[in-house]
Specification:
321 residues, alpha/beta, 8-stranded mixed β-sheet, 8 strands, globular
Length: 321
């Protein structure tokens, strides 16, 4: 769980808390102060430099501009299964873009013979809530409206995302539910960033979480919300864990490592979904920090995590195992 480090002069959580298979990967990752405005500006400048997209064998990738959002569409070769995934990338609501998950989205497309639509949404601090979520909603509506054309059955769509993308996925599911119309058959949330109250808990600052610590978390939430996290008067969908009534939402899969900053908030959300009568699978990986399944996909712990995710997706999308 979240134990403070034995030596507070250390800038990172002790490696011996991590699963042995993950130590090498995370020993190479520095503690980056994403919350620092200068660092954030520099990262945004660097991310704007065009990168040559890595080819994704067996999958075509096409970008399409919508009104405010744009989407990145992954289509596998050959016959389609008719299922579809709406994906949202992570980055603390402040960094990242759809290309960071090219590998994961292409893999989903290939393995499930389905079209994956990943949304490019506006980021804080320039674009505060609800603009990023508005973009996700616009892109979701576009997917629903164009499902048949894309070779997707509108009643076999799942919403998924990682980290802040997992938080946006949970918020989008709530907003789509309240709006009526076509609903996703499931929500798959990978280490989702759901609850601004975690960022408001300064006691967690002493826990030097790998990749994303609570100071970064507070920065991300503050930039996104435009106010300090932890206030009692947040608007609906701003922090999906704040929603009181979770009943009626689609079946959920929540996956997280137990040394991830989001471990407690993710477990709490999964428990509340279950209590509200929503079928929910909670997958906890011991000794796994944030985004381990993306950074160390070939480890047995990541493969086990992915297998649980895949099992859920097969069930809700009615795909053969």
């Amino acid at each position: 769980g979240l134990n403070p480090p034995r030596d507070n002069r250390d800038t990172l959580m002790h490696l011996d808390k991590l699963h042995p298979e993950l130590r090498k990967t995370y020993s190479r990752i520095p503690a980056v102060p994403f919350h620092n405005p200068v660092v954030l500006t520099l990262l945004k400048v660097l991310s704007a430099i065009p990168r040559k997209a890595k080819p994704t064998p067996g999958v075509s990738v096409v970008n399409k501009q919508l009104k405010t959002a744009s989407v990145r569409i992954y289509r596998p070769e050959g016959e389609l299964s008719g299922a579809g995934m709406f994906w949202i990338h992570g980055g603390g609501y402040i960094i990242g873009d759809a290309t960071v998950n090219d590998g994961e989205c292409a893999q989903y497309a290939r393995d499930f013979k389905m079209v994956v639509v990943s949304v490019e949404y506006r980021l804080a601090p320039r674009h505060k809530f609800p603009l990023g979520l508005d973009d996700c909603f616009e892109a979701w509506q576009w997917l629903v409206d164009n499902a048949q054309e894309l070779g997707v059955s509108p009643d076999r769509l799942v919403i998924s995302g990682q980290s802040a993308g997992g938080g946006l996925a949970a918020a989008l599911v709530q907003r789509v539910f309240d709006s009526g119309g076509t609903q996703p058959v499931g929500q798959a949330l990978l280490c989702p960033m759901l609850d601004d109250r975690t960022a408001a808990n300064t006691e967690l600052d002493a826990v030097k979480n790998r990749l994303w610590n609570n100071k970064n978390n507070r920065g991300g939430w503050t930039y996104y919300l435009g106010v300090a996290p932890g206030r009692s008067d947040l608007p609906p969908y701003a922090a999906p864990a704040r929603r009181e009534d979770l009943s009626g939402l689609p079946p959920a899969w929540v996956g997280v490592g137990d040394v991830d900053l989001f471990y407690q908030e993710d477990c709490d959300y999964a428990a509340r979904l279950t209590a509200a009568g929503v079928p929910c699978t909670l997958k906890v990986t011991p000794g796994a920090p944030h985004a381990f399944e993306m950074l160390a996909p070939d480890t047995s712990v990541a493969k086990d995590f992915t297998a649980s995710n895949y099992q859920f997706l097969r069930e809700v999308l009615a795909l053969p195992s």
